[in-house]
Every structure is written in structure tokens, then in C-alpha cells.
Write a structure and sequence with these properties.
Residues 1-29 form the signal peptide. By secondary structure, this protein is an alpha+beta fold. It has a single domain (2-320), classed as 2,3-Dihydroxybiphenyl 1,2-Dioxygenase, domain 1. It has seven helices and 18 strands. Mean pLDDT is 92; it is low at 30-35.
């Protein structure tokens, strides 16, 4: 009874009448119908580091990521906030009170995906979401992972997910099988106590597993993030492509569902300011620098790395760690 009540609560928060409806909503959000320590996604030669967002209401958005996702506020001032987990910075927020809101059909952020260390952690967070009436936008089983979708108060997309064991992923050469199936909410909730929430904060090993971006042209974006940055393609479907390092299912999603033909981004508007890609060796960083130069892309030196931007002006910092 408790599990069924919680499931109904979650469906209500997602504005869905059934798991099938929630999966359809997740398809619109994603577009593709454990133990302790860093997950596989964060042990690859290249992996997502942190994200910086420009926001109008700093307090509202910072409180959301603290209360809804469970991130710890590491630094906070009148103009910025830094949040993370386990002492690792994951999210910077920059206050831009008078900024125009970035349009949904502009290039930019589609969602930031927070990766739970284990399936049980995802289950505990789901109970937390239900008990705190956090609005959700969809659920999905992607075969390689299980995902929940939501939006922050300024419309920035968020995914909270847990990976299945990498040895269960089905590869056909360089392409991994992914889908958008119904999420087994009952199976998730069976892993935890649904009568109360014990999710006081995000697990110490929570990280950003992948980024999903809106771009203006899929082939152009594929060349930049593949040829110039060095990601390998892992999956393609109508209007979208997925890329990764080290045989992860995807560190990066790119799509043109809303943004086909988009021009340069307005870097004074709200939304994604930049995200970082951590690289494991100096050799990788040097190879990236050379490829960027050969592609005619910007490659400005910064501390421990370089900063570049994709063809629409989304900034990416490549950092040697």
C-alpha cells in the first residue's frame, strides 16, 4: 500500500496518469525512445566536471539545487553560489538579475544529468522527491540507465539517474542499445523505506554523468564534439546524437529537436555559461589543443587547461586533473 501510494504521488508530481505517459514525457525530455567511489562515467579518460549557469534569481535556484537535488552549498555570496557533493564542486550559479531568458529554440542547455552512485540512491532520492512534492517531468528506463526528469525554477533541464552495470549494456560495434521504456518505479521503491525519507543530502559520490545540449546543426556539432574534442559516437537517432569517452554510453547528448538552424547564443542571457570536461592526461589535453587549432576553433589558455566554444558559442573548459 505504501509503495502504491508513493508511486501515485510520483506520477502526480510528473503530471502523468500512468507510467506509460511518464515514459512519453521522458522521451520528450531525453529524446532516446553500485558501490562506493566514482562511477564508471567518471573514471573514463574524459568526463564531465562541473557546470556554470547564469540565473536571474540566485537564491531561488541555489535553494532548489540544495533542497531538491541535495547538493551542498560550498560558497555563497550576493552574486554567486557554488554547490557540490562530497567536497567536489559540481555547479556554479552566477547572478544575472536583468538577463533575458534564453529561448527554448536557442542553442544551449537541454539538461544537466546528475548521476547517482547506486540504484538504491536513486530510490532514496525518489522518496525524497515525493515527500517534498518536487515537480517532475518524466521517468524512463533507457536500458543502460534509469532516469527521472525535472526542471529547475528557471527552466534549466535536470536529469537524475542511475546507471545499470556496464557489463549489461548491449553494444553492436561502436553503438550501444538505448531506449525509452517505462521505469520500474515499484522495483526502485522496493529498495528503500517509502514511509520516510533518509535523503538528507546527495551521496558524496554523486557526480554529473553527462550533459545534453541543444545545437543548431547536428552534423556540425558532431564534427566539433567528435573530431575536435575527441569524443566517440555511441548512438544516433532522428535529430540527436550521443558521444562518450572510454565506452561510456554517453557523456554528451546533442539534439536539434527545438533548435534546428539556431544562430549564435546570446552570452548575456540566462542558461548555460560553460561546462568543464576533465581529461586524465596531459597527452589528451595536447591532442585536443591540436585538433581545435586544426579545426579553426578557439583554444584559449586557462589554468590547467584550455577554453573553447562550440559553433553556437557554448563554452567548454578542458581541464587536466
Amino acid at each position: 500500500m505504501t509503495i502504491d501510494l508513493t508511486r501515485r504521488t510520483l506520477l502526480h508530481l510528473a503530471g502523468a496518469s500512468s507510467l506509460g505517459a511518464a515514459a512519453i514525457a521522458a522521451a520528450q525530455a531525453e529524446g532516446t525512445a553500485g558501490g562506493s567511489g566514482p562511477t564508471f562515467a567518471n573514471r573514463t579518460p574524459m568526463r564531465i566536471g562541473m557546470v556554470t549557469l547564469r540565473v536571474r534569481n540566485l537564491d531561488l535556484v541555489a535553494d532548489y539545487y540544495r533542497d531538491a537535488i541535495g547538493l551542498t552549498v560550498m560558497q555563497r555570496s550576493a552574486t554567486s553560489a557554488r554547490l557540490g557533493s562530497g567536497g567536489v564542486a559540481l555547479l556554479d550559479l552566477e547572478r544575472r538579475e536583468s538577463a533575458a531568458r534564453e529561448a527554448r529554440n536557442a542553442a544551449g542547455l537541454y539538461h544537466t544529468a546528475f548521476l547517482m552512485p547506486t540504484r538504491k540512491d536513486l530510490a532514496r532520492w525518489l522518496v525524497h522527491a515525493a515527500k517534498n512534492k518536487i515537480p517532475l517531468s518524466g521517468f524512463a528506463d533507457h536500458l543502460v540507465s534509469e532516469s527521472v526528469y525535472l526542471d529547475d525554477p528557471e527552466g534549466n533541464g535536470v536529469e537524475v539517474y542511475a546507471d545499470r552495470a556496464p557489463e549489461t549494456w548491449k553494444w553492436d560495434g561502436g553503438s550501444v542499445a538505448m531506449a525509452t521504456d517505462q521505469l520500474d518505479i515499484d522495483g526502485l521503491l522496493a529498495l528503500t523505506d517509502t514511509r520516510t525519507t533518509n535523503y538528507a543530502k546527495a551521496p558524496d559520490d554523486l557526480r554529473i554523468g553527462h550533459m545534453h545540449l541543444r545545437v543548431g546543426d547536428l552534423e556540425q556539432a558532431d564534427r566539433f564534439y567528435g573530431d575536435a574534442i575527441g569524443f566517440d559516437p555511441t548512438r544516433k537517432r532522428s535529430g540527436a546524437a550521443f558521444l562518450s569517452s572510454g565506452r561510456y554510453h554517453h557523456h554528451l547528448g546533442i539534439n536539434v529537436w527545438q533548435s534546428a538552424g539556431a544562430g549564435p547564443r546570446d552570452d548575456t542571457a540566462t542558461g548555460l555559461a560553460w561546462f568543464s570536461l576533465e581529461v586524465a592526461t596531459q597527452q589528451i589535453l595536447e591532442a585536443q589543443t591540436l585538433r581545435l587549432q586544426q579545426a579553426g576553433a578557439p583554444a584559449a589558455a586557462i589554468e590547467n587547461g584550455i577554453e573553447t566554444s562550440d559553433p553556437w558559442g557554448t563554452k567548454l573548459r578542458l581541464i587536466k586533473v
